[in-house]
C-alpha cells in the first residue's frame, strides 16, 4: 500500500513539475505514471551501481555528486519513457532536486502517521 501511495505522489509531483518548470515536458497522466514507475525501478537497480562506480567523486565532493547521479537517473528515464522530455542537464538536475525534496516531505508526513 505504501508503494502505491509513493507512486501516486510521485506521479502528481511529476505532473506539477512539468507544469511549473520550463524544459520539462510530460504528454499525459499515463506518461507521468510511467515516469514515476521507471524512476522507482532505476533508483532500485541502476543508482546503486552508479554510486559504487563514482564513490571517489562522491567522497571528494562530500556527497554533492549524488545530485549529479540523480540528474543522470532522470535523464535515463527521459530516454526510456516516450512522452517525457527534458531540455538539458540543468533542467534534469533541478527536476531531480525538487522531486527529491517533495518526496522527502511526503515520506516524512506518512511516517509520522505510522508512528501514531
In short:
With 116 residues, the chain is mostly helical. The chain is 79% helix and 5% strand. The protein has a two-stranded antiparallel sheet.
Plain-language structure description:
This protein is mainly alpha-helical. It has one domain. 79% of the residues lie in helices and 5% in strands. The chain contains six helices and two strands, in the order H-E-H-H-H-H-E-H. It has helices spanning 2-20, 29-45, 47-53, 55-60, 65-80, 89-115, and strands at residues 24-26, 84-86. The chain has a two-stranded antiparallel sheet. Helix 1 (2-20) crosses helix 2 (29-45), helix 1 (2-20) packs antiparallel against helix 6 and helix 2 packs across helix 5. The two termini are 18 Å apart. The relative contact order is 0.16. The mean pLDDT is 94. This is Phage holin family protein. Pfam families: Phage_holin_4_2 (PF04020).
First-last Cα distance: 18 Å
Which regions have little confidence, pLDDT < 50, spanning 5+ residues? none
In the residues, how many domains can be counted?
A: 1
Shape: globular
- Estimate what percentage of residues fall within beta strands: 5-15%
Task: Determine the number of helices (DSSP H or I, runs of at least 4 residues).
Answer: 6
Rg: 14 Å
Protein name: Phage holin family protein
InterPro entries: Phage_holin_4_2
Pfam families: Phage_holin_4_2 (PF04020)
Keywords: Membrane, Transmembrane, Transmembrane helix
